[in-house]
Amino acid sequence: MAVLLYGGSALYSIFLLRRGLRRDNWLNYGLLALACAFHTVAMLKRGFSLQRCPINNLYEAVAFIGWTISASYLFIGLFSKWRSFGAFASPLLLVLGIFALMPGLDPPRGDKPNFSGWEVSLHAVLLLLSYGSFGLASVAGLMYLTQERNLKWRKLEAVFSLIPPIQRLEAITGWSVGAGFLLLTSGLALGAVFLTPPPGTSFFKDAKVIWSMLVWGLYLALMVSRWQFAQRGRRFAFGAVGGFVFIMLTFWGAKLLSNIHNP
Amino acid sequence: MAIVVWGISHHTAPVEVRERFAVSEARVPDLMHRIKNQGIASEGVILSTCNRVEIYLNAAVEPVRVLAELRRIVADALGCAEPAANECYAYQEPHSVEHLCRVASGMDSMVLGETEILGQLKKAYETALNNQWTGARLNKAFQRAFQIAKHIRTETQIQRGTVSVGSAAVDLAERIFETIQGRQVLVIGAGDTSEKTARSLLSRGARTVLVANRSFDRAAALAEALGGRAVRWDDWNSVFAETDIVISSTAAPHFVLDRAKLEPLMDLRRNRPLLLIDIAVPRDIDPEVNFLDNVFLYNIDDLQSIADDSMRQRQRELERCEEIIREKVRELLGQGTRGYGGGDGCPKPASV
Do the Cβ atoms of A152 and B302 come within 8 Å? Predict the structure, then answer.
């Protein structure tokens, strides 16, 4: 149901974007709120059945990332000047939803979950929240690129659309990247300090760990280039969008290749 | 008891007529007393602006008689001849209330959708309220009209966008910067349009205006008028790092600012966004600079085009606004749907 509603919202968003996103629109917010409600119920049901946070496999992980973006939008969408965020977020939520429902990502569980212990749960939650935060940054970055293009090409939408000013969008992109980076660093540090790899495996040879370090380095470079070398505006927005696209395209592969994270 | 309105506006009379019927603030009590003394109305509000004089009354007698008497009273009070029939207008309910809402929403203004009239109408109403010239009926109508104006402002695009070059610049600045407050504006060349544009930005909270002109005296004069600071022509590059908005309007026959000159300046600004408004003809700023990251260049045609498009946008919204007003006034007056207003587009109010 949630994916269907995300789909409805994405279709409606395309219509709104083609119309120049000129009017404050509660319908799209309502669709996403309803989708988020279904999404939350599904996560809770799965969580209660597992008796812990539902981030056990690739399906649950992707659903969790989508949920963090969706829930964040529900909050920021309460402010009218940010409601247009939904038109850019819903296609991403639809893509995440479809991906999560792909066959094979949610194999039947055995008697026991793949891992246990609060350290592992917290490690996974922090990492998935960081990807959610990077997702938000990519949506804000996409909005920046859209509005910047409107302004550069002197389109009327630059003045009439409800997209926030580009300086605010850049700030939001920056904060989201910063928050994501902090969560990612905390999650990785927690894993390195509190978790021990299963016998016969090593963190340094694990595809998911190497991939995570790559993502960490990528976002570190993005932040340093902004703060230290004044690579702001369009370049930073492209970086935020590109970073999340990279995560989405490689996340599943890294997880499937990992011996530790995909036993 | 019914609300009636009599008035003269820019739609019906030229300024030569309007100025004769303008009611100064000091003369409003006298005119209202004359109206009340005649016993034709129990409540009244007088609105007088540069574009209109309107008198809203709660008629105590037959509306047609009130309106006929009113023309004579106004002419007597102002010491001038009665206006010709085609120079004024008069409406009775429900069209009088619809007209009030239309005026409050800026739909009857010279610049469609402007908001200044709402403030003027509120002031006129407050004067009447403080002097106890209003009662339940006019209070309800005016307060409802203010609510409807607010509703129209938020639900339609009648007041969206901008209809002058100066305010187009402000709108663009608001789309680029988090806020205009605290922004530094640099005016290159001391022309009239640049002054107006700078004033528009100052009115929205811009922090400082710096003026650079080949003639330092003219720069100093304009800077003083704008409450800013003059900069020597050869020094304007030095203030660029802190500048957010540049308005250029010199008479130079060549580009004053080009890509080669701007690129190193953007490094000094650490690539913060920069809005360049080139209102000079021939142009002062090389269009190539728009290809630089974080630089947004608009020339006079771009600004005019935004203003024109905004006006067209507002006109397209008129029908929606009329529909809202008809519906809300119908609710206010508690009338049925049948026989009211008509549903075909936006009918002009019927004159009495």
Answer: no
